[in-house]
Amino acid sequence: MAVYQTNSPEETEQLARRVGERLRDGDVIAYRGGMGMGKTAFTRGLAAGMGIGEELVSSPTFALINEYRKNGRRLCHFDMYRIDSYDDLYSTGFFDYLDQDAVLAIEWSENIQGLDVLPKGTIWITISRTGESSRSIEIEGGERFENLGD
Question: Is the full-model pTM beyond 0.85?
Fold first, then answer.
């Protein structure tokens, strides 16, 4: 596990950009962290690092799933805030996305964690508030996410 500190939304996006550069198609990212922690900001950085561009990324709160594509890469951004059962999850089409060449980024993964549906090798990113704009970001997912710099 690697732990990083950021002091602004911009620093959070910069860290996420470095993570995005190391992502491979098929990776699943499960975010943990409460409202306003910076999960969507982190996803903007992922998209930039993947070459998709951060300007397209917005919270999928009402859509449940936002897809971003560019330069042969694909990022599927889920919001599981309102999902509380296997049937709810199934109705989103989530399982179809697991078999596609895309990176999945899942906000509110806590709501589906107990359903035992996230694949082995899921990358866990826990974002915690340490100050008004500062965050502690823990990344569990292997050596490729260590030593990302300051």
Answer: yes
